Amino acid sequence: KEKIKHIICKMDEKKREKVEKAWKVVDENFSSIFSTLLQGAQARLNPVKQAGQLFGLEINVGFNGVWKESLSELSGGQRSLVALSLVLAMLKFSPAPLYILDEVDAALDMSHTQNIGNMLKAHFTGSQFIIVSLKDGMFNNANVLFRTKFEEGVSAVTRTVNTKLTQRGRK
Fold first, then answer.
1. Phi, psi for 42 (deg, rounded to 5)
2. Which of 39, 40, 49, 57 could form a disulfide with 45 if both were Cys (CB 3.0 to 4.6 A apart)?
3. What is the pLDDT of residues 20-35, one digit of tens each?
């Protein structure tokens, strides 16, 4: 019985160490990604008060050093950027070679849409993205664009290579 208790204690300690390591890395990525997407903004993940990171994390967002009491104080676009930043921070912790994003910029204005493209290029250099968007600002950093158009009852697809980006990539 004592041996089992000892093993359980060791496993609990390893779990705590792994969760703490993951939390710190995701928090750092979350903060970096969010501040890239929204200039003058800060974000962090804090352990739930008096419970610790094993019981949950709270999202805190601030603008120019003034921290919001609740996420309900944010606009819809700001909440979208918080959610996108957190998801991407978790994906960066455990990266994949390919991501598919479907209209992640739907609630955003053009400047924030462009910031997403810039952030993906800066933070995810080892990954490829397939991004569906209806906004032109998203495509400034795309290597290849596929545009669909519905004409006379038929869907047509055109492929465009961004020669500016592909030439920069070769140098």
1. -130, 150
2. 57
3. 899 999 999 999 999 9
d(CA 113, CA 104): 9
Distance (Å, rounded) from C-alpha 30 to C-alpha 27? Answer: 5
**Whole-structure pTM value:** 0.80
* pLDDT score at 126: 85
Contacts of 101 (CB under 8 A, 6+ apart): 129, 130, 131, 132
Reduce the DSSP state of residue 54 to 3 states and report it: strand
Q: In angstroms, rounded to a whole number, what is the distance separating the alpha carbons of residues 137 and 114? A: 5
- Taking the alpha carbons at both ends of the chain, their separation in whole angstroms is 65
Angle between the N-to-C axes of helices 2-37 and 76-93, in degrees from 0 to 180, rounded to the nearest 10: 130
DSSP designation for 15: H
